[in-house]
Write a structure and sequence with these properties.
Elements lengths: L3 E12 L2 E7 L11 E8 L2 E8 L8 E7 L7 H5 L6 E8 L9 E7 L3 H13 L3 E7 L6 H9 L3 E5 L6 H7 L5 E6 L1 H13 L8 E4 L2
Parallel strand pairs: 7-8, 7-10, 8-9, 10-11
Antiparallel strand pairs: 1-2, 1-6, 2-5, 3-4, 3-6
Helix pairs in contact: 4-5
Length: 211
Amino acid sequence: MEPREVTVAANRRVGPDTVALDVKTPDGFSAEPGQFVKLTLDVEGESVSRFYTLSSPSVTDTFELTVGIDPEGDVAPHIEALEAGDTVTIAGPFGNDYYEGEARVVILAGGPGVGPAIGIAERALEDGGEAGIVYLDDAPVHEARLAALEEQGAAVFILDAGESMTDAVASVLTGDEQLFIYGFADFLDAATDALQAAGADPETAKVENFG
């Protein structure tokens, strides 16, 4: 999709220094959980852009972007200040490593990677599949949605950053899942090590490196 102005539907706090930005889906926009968009907004008269991965299971009427807020950041505080009715510009979707209807998904998520993890898991359950999440974060977000996923039968592990993932990863693997890894580079390394220790092949995972 070419860049297009869209309207903010809601802006909600979902955890420490984190908001979920809901925007109204423009005509012709289609995306799957795990893909990302380019968000552009005006900051003091200058157009600035950032990339955010979808954290909603669908884009039927609106779609959600989970945004971590650095109070000293150049852009995120302006996103935090957005209100319903404000407009931003969206382009995309981008990314090739997303949910494609797999019957069983296991997502390893570090920090902001929980956004796509939840969207993928919710969609998989809606489609009649199974889901597991191993999530590392010292200040977890989207806890209500994670609890709801667990109540619906998903395997959910929330660990402190730096904590070993090996046991949690081993417990959610069955050998017939599609693996996903979302997070920053150091988390990707830890996730790869945990998968190898659990006897899985990291090369089969769909991966998004946040930098």
